[in-house]
Design a protein that fits this description.
Blueprint lengths: L1 H124 L5 E5 L2 E5 L1 H15 L3 H14 L6 H14 L3 H14 L5 H14 L3 H14 L4 H13 L1
Antiparallel strand pairs: 1-2
Protein backbone atom coordinates (compact mmCIF):
# COMPACT_ATOMS: atom_id res chain seq x y z
CA UNK A 1 0.00 0.00 0.00
CA UNK A 2 2.75 2.34 0.92
CA UNK A 3 4.43 1.60 -2.29
CA UNK A 4 1.34 2.36 -4.25
CA UNK A 5 0.80 5.47 -2.37
CA UNK A 6 4.32 6.57 -2.87
CA UNK A 7 3.98 5.88 -6.58
CA UNK A 8 0.81 7.88 -6.78
CA UNK A 9 2.33 10.75 -4.86
CA UNK A 10 5.39 10.64 -7.08
CA UNK A 11 3.27 10.49 -10.18
CA UNK A 12 1.26 13.41 -8.94
CA UNK A 13 4.37 15.36 -8.18
CA UNK A 14 5.96 14.56 -11.55
CA UNK A 15 2.84 15.11 -13.59
CA UNK A 16 3.14 18.89 -13.79
CA UNK A 17 6.76 18.68 -14.71
CA UNK A 18 6.00 16.07 -17.28
CA UNK A 19 3.35 18.27 -18.73
CA UNK A 20 5.78 21.14 -18.78
CA UNK A 21 8.34 18.98 -20.47
CA UNK A 22 5.84 17.74 -22.99
CA UNK A 23 4.75 21.28 -23.64
CA UNK A 24 8.33 22.37 -24.04
CA UNK A 25 8.97 19.48 -26.32
CA UNK A 26 5.92 20.38 -28.33
CA UNK A 27 7.02 23.98 -28.49
CA UNK A 28 10.48 22.97 -29.57
CA UNK A 29 9.06 20.57 -32.09
CA UNK A 30 6.77 23.32 -33.41
CA UNK A 31 9.63 25.74 -33.66
CA UNK A 32 11.72 23.18 -35.46
CA UNK A 33 8.91 22.40 -37.87
CA UNK A 34 8.27 26.10 -38.48
CA UNK A 35 11.94 26.72 -39.23
CA UNK A 36 12.02 23.77 -41.57
CA UNK A 37 8.83 24.98 -43.20
CA UNK A 38 10.28 28.40 -43.61
CA UNK A 39 13.45 26.88 -45.02
CA UNK A 40 11.41 24.75 -47.38
CA UNK A 41 9.34 27.78 -48.32
CA UNK A 42 12.47 29.81 -49.11
CA UNK A 43 13.86 26.92 -51.16
CA UNK A 44 10.60 26.69 -53.13
CA UNK A 45 10.62 30.45 -53.81
CA UNK A 46 14.19 30.33 -55.10
CA UNK A 47 13.34 27.39 -57.27
CA UNK A 48 10.26 29.15 -58.59
CA UNK A 49 12.28 32.27 -59.21
CA UNK A 50 14.98 30.24 -60.98
CA UNK A 51 12.33 28.48 -63.01
CA UNK A 52 10.70 31.78 -63.91
CA UNK A 53 14.07 33.22 -64.86
CA UNK A 54 14.85 30.13 -66.91
CA UNK A 55 11.48 30.35 -68.59
CA UNK A 56 12.10 34.03 -69.33
CA UNK A 57 15.49 33.17 -70.80
CA UNK A 58 13.98 30.37 -72.83
CA UNK A 59 11.26 32.75 -74.08
CA UNK A 60 13.91 35.33 -74.92
CA UNK A 61 15.96 32.72 -76.75
CA UNK A 62 12.88 31.52 -78.60
CA UNK A 63 12.07 35.07 -79.65
CA UNK A 64 15.68 35.62 -80.70
CA UNK A 65 15.61 32.32 -82.57
CA UNK A 66 12.38 33.27 -84.29
CA UNK A 67 13.79 36.68 -85.15
CA UNK A 68 16.95 35.08 -86.53
CA UNK A 69 14.84 32.59 -88.46
CA UNK A 70 12.84 35.46 -89.91
CA UNK A 71 16.03 37.32 -90.79
CA UNK A 72 17.47 34.17 -92.37
CA UNK A 73 14.26 33.72 -94.34
CA UNK A 74 14.38 37.36 -95.42
CA UNK A 75 18.00 36.92 -96.48
CA UNK A 76 17.05 33.78 -98.37
CA UNK A 77 14.19 35.62 -100.05
CA UNK A 78 16.53 38.50 -100.88
CA UNK A 79 19.11 36.09 -102.29
CA UNK A 80 16.40 34.40 -104.33
CA UNK A 81 15.21 37.76 -105.65
CA UNK A 82 18.81 38.72 -106.40
CA UNK A 83 19.35 35.42 -108.18
CA UNK A 84 16.22 36.03 -110.23
CA UNK A 85 17.36 39.55 -111.02
CA UNK A 86 20.78 38.24 -112.05
CA UNK A 87 19.15 35.68 -114.32
CA UNK A 88 16.95 38.40 -115.78
CA UNK A 89 19.95 40.67 -116.31
CA UNK A 90 21.82 37.80 -117.93
CA UNK A 91 18.90 37.26 -120.25
CA UNK A 92 18.70 40.95 -121.08
CA UNK A 93 22.47 41.08 -121.65
CA UNK A 94 22.25 38.10 -123.96
CA UNK A 95 19.43 39.82 -125.81
CA UNK A 96 21.42 43.05 -125.97
CA UNK A 97 24.47 41.17 -127.26
CA UNK A 98 22.29 39.68 -129.94
CA UNK A 99 20.91 43.09 -130.81
CA UNK A 100 24.41 44.55 -130.71
CA UNK A 101 25.69 41.85 -133.04
CA UNK A 102 22.81 42.55 -135.39
CA UNK A 103 23.39 46.30 -135.14
CA UNK A 104 27.12 45.80 -135.70
CA UNK A 105 26.48 43.74 -138.80
CA UNK A 106 24.01 46.31 -140.07
CA UNK A 107 26.47 49.10 -139.30
CA UNK A 108 29.28 47.25 -141.07
CA UNK A 109 27.02 46.67 -144.04
CA UNK A 110 26.06 50.34 -144.04
CA UNK A 111 29.71 51.41 -143.78
CA UNK A 112 30.61 49.08 -146.64
CA UNK A 113 27.77 50.47 -148.75
CA UNK A 114 28.76 54.06 -147.92
CA UNK A 115 32.41 53.30 -148.74
CA UNK A 116 31.37 51.72 -152.03
CA UNK A 117 29.12 54.68 -152.74
CA UNK A 118 31.90 57.13 -151.93
CA UNK A 119 34.31 55.22 -154.14
CA UNK A 120 31.80 55.22 -156.98
CA UNK A 121 31.08 58.90 -156.41
CA UNK A 122 34.79 59.69 -156.30
CA UNK A 123 35.25 57.87 -159.58
CA UNK A 124 32.38 59.81 -161.08
CA UNK A 125 33.61 63.12 -159.70
CA UNK A 126 37.27 62.47 -160.53
CA UNK A 127 36.89 63.87 -164.05
CA UNK A 128 35.29 67.00 -162.53
CA UNK A 129 37.69 67.66 -159.66
CA UNK A 130 40.42 70.25 -160.22
CA UNK A 131 43.96 68.95 -160.58
CA UNK A 132 47.31 70.61 -159.94
CA UNK A 133 49.64 71.02 -162.91
CA UNK A 134 53.04 72.55 -163.59
CA UNK A 135 53.30 74.95 -166.53
CA UNK A 136 56.70 76.48 -167.21
CA UNK A 137 57.74 75.75 -163.61
CA UNK A 138 54.64 77.31 -162.08
CA UNK A 139 51.84 75.48 -160.26
CA UNK A 140 48.27 75.91 -161.49
CA UNK A 141 44.91 74.31 -160.82
CA UNK A 142 42.89 73.25 -163.85
CA UNK A 143 39.87 71.12 -164.63
CA UNK A 144 40.61 67.54 -165.71
CA UNK A 145 38.81 68.12 -169.01
CA UNK A 146 40.85 71.27 -169.50
CA UNK A 147 44.10 69.38 -168.93
CA UNK A 148 42.96 66.53 -171.15
CA UNK A 149 41.97 68.88 -173.98
CA UNK A 150 45.35 70.60 -173.99
CA UNK A 151 47.29 67.35 -173.82
CA UNK A 152 45.23 65.91 -176.67
CA UNK A 153 46.03 68.89 -178.92
CA UNK A 154 49.71 68.84 -177.98
CA UNK A 155 49.86 65.09 -178.62
CA UNK A 156 48.54 65.63 -182.14
CA UNK A 157 51.23 68.28 -182.77
CA UNK A 158 53.99 65.97 -181.51
CA UNK A 159 52.71 63.28 -183.88
CA UNK A 160 53.05 65.81 -186.72
CA UNK A 161 49.27 65.91 -187.12
CA UNK A 162 49.41 69.68 -187.64
CA UNK A 163 45.90 69.94 -189.01
CA UNK A 164 44.41 68.00 -186.14
CA UNK A 165 46.56 69.95 -183.68
CA UNK A 166 45.48 73.34 -185.02
CA UNK A 167 41.82 72.29 -184.88
CA UNK A 168 42.23 70.99 -181.31
CA UNK A 169 44.10 74.10 -180.11
CA UNK A 170 41.47 76.42 -181.62
CA UNK A 171 38.70 74.46 -179.88
CA UNK A 172 40.63 74.52 -176.63
CA UNK A 173 41.12 78.31 -176.74
CA UNK A 174 37.45 78.84 -177.55
CA UNK A 175 36.42 76.75 -174.54
CA UNK A 176 39.12 77.86 -172.09
CA UNK A 177 40.27 81.35 -173.12
CA UNK A 178 41.52 82.17 -169.57
CA UNK A 179 43.21 78.83 -168.99
CA UNK A 180 46.80 78.82 -167.71
CA UNK A 181 47.42 76.63 -170.74
CA UNK A 182 46.23 79.44 -173.05
CA UNK A 183 49.69 81.00 -173.75
CA UNK A 184 51.08 77.55 -174.58
CA UNK A 185 48.02 76.70 -176.70
CA UNK A 186 48.36 79.94 -178.71
CA UNK A 187 52.05 79.31 -179.30
CA UNK A 188 51.56 75.71 -180.46
CA UNK A 189 48.57 76.74 -182.58
CA UNK A 190 50.86 79.16 -184.46
CA UNK A 191 53.42 76.39 -184.94
CA UNK A 192 50.68 73.99 -186.12
CA UNK A 193 49.63 76.52 -188.77
CA UNK A 194 53.24 77.04 -189.77
CA UNK A 195 53.63 73.25 -190.07
CA UNK A 196 50.72 73.23 -192.54
CA UNK A 197 52.44 76.00 -194.49
CA UNK A 198 49.62 78.36 -193.62
CA UNK A 199 52.11 81.15 -193.16
CA UNK A 200 49.67 84.05 -193.21
CA UNK A 201 47.59 82.44 -190.48
CA UNK A 202 50.76 81.45 -188.63
CA UNK A 203 51.93 85.08 -188.83
CA UNK A 204 48.72 86.28 -187.20
CA UNK A 205 48.89 83.52 -184.58
CA UNK A 206 52.48 84.39 -183.60
CA UNK A 207 51.52 88.05 -183.31
CA UNK A 208 48.68 87.01 -180.97
CA UNK A 209 51.20 85.26 -178.73
CA UNK A 210 53.46 88.34 -178.70
CA UNK A 211 50.53 90.68 -178.01
CA UNK A 212 49.44 88.50 -175.08
CA UNK A 213 52.72 89.49 -173.38
CA UNK A 214 53.74 86.03 -172.17
CA UNK A 215 57.42 86.49 -171.31
CA UNK A 216 58.11 82.77 -171.55
CA UNK A 217 56.88 82.29 -175.09
CA UNK A 218 57.37 85.78 -176.57
CA UNK A 219 61.02 85.31 -177.70
CA UNK A 220 60.18 82.03 -179.48
CA UNK A 221 56.98 83.52 -180.91
CA UNK A 222 59.01 86.43 -182.36
CA UNK A 223 61.38 83.98 -183.96
CA UNK A 224 58.42 82.03 -185.40
CA UNK A 225 56.92 85.28 -186.68
CA UNK A 226 60.18 86.14 -188.47
CA UNK A 227 60.22 82.64 -190.02
CA UNK A 228 56.66 83.09 -191.27
CA UNK A 229 57.54 86.51 -192.70
CA UNK A 230 60.51 85.00 -194.50
CA UNK A 231 58.25 82.31 -196.03
CA UNK A 232 55.88 85.10 -197.09
CA UNK A 233 58.89 86.90 -198.61
CA UNK A 234 58.43 89.80 -196.25
CA UNK A 235 62.13 90.11 -195.64
CA UNK A 236 62.08 93.69 -194.39
CA UNK A 237 59.47 92.79 -191.83
CA UNK A 238 61.43 89.65 -190.96
CA UNK A 239 64.64 91.61 -190.37
CA UNK A 240 62.77 94.10 -188.21
CA UNK A 241 61.32 91.30 -186.11
CA UNK A 242 64.72 89.60 -185.72
CA UNK A 243 66.42 92.88 -184.84
CA UNK A 244 63.79 93.59 -182.22
CA UNK A 245 64.15 90.07 -180.82
CA UNK A 246 67.93 90.21 -180.58
CA UNK A 247 67.76 93.54 -178.82
CA UNK A 248 64.98 92.64 -176.36
CA UNK A 249 66.19 89.12 -175.48
CA UNK A 250 69.92 88.96 -176.28
CA UNK A 251 70.68 86.19 -173.77
CA UNK A 252 67.89 83.86 -174.86
CA UNK A 253 68.35 81.06 -177.37
CA UNK A 254 65.82 82.78 -179.65
CA UNK A 255 67.77 86.07 -179.37
CA UNK A 256 71.04 84.35 -180.29
CA UNK A 257 69.34 82.64 -183.24
CA UNK A 258 67.93 86.01 -184.35
CA UNK A 259 71.45 87.47 -184.51
CA UNK A 260 72.56 84.60 -186.76
CA UNK A 261 69.52 84.97 -189.01
CA UNK A 262 70.15 88.72 -189.36
CA UNK A 263 73.60 88.09 -190.73
CA UNK A 264 72.19 85.70 -193.32
CA UNK A 265 69.40 88.07 -194.38
CA UNK A 266 71.75 90.99 -195.16
Amino acid sequence: MKTSLIAENLSAALRPRLRLAVAAACVALGLAWSAQARADLFADNDARRAILDLRAQVATLQQASQSQAQQVQQIRNSLLDLSNQIDQIKGEMAQLRGQQDTTTRQLNDTIAKVAAGQKDLSQRLAPLEPVSVQIDGQAFTVQPAEKSGYEHALGAFRNSDFAGASTAFKAFLDQYPASPYAPEARYWLANSLFGQQKYREAEAAFKAVIDAGDATRTPQAMLGLANAQVELHELRAARATLHKLAKAYPASNAGKTAKERLQKLR
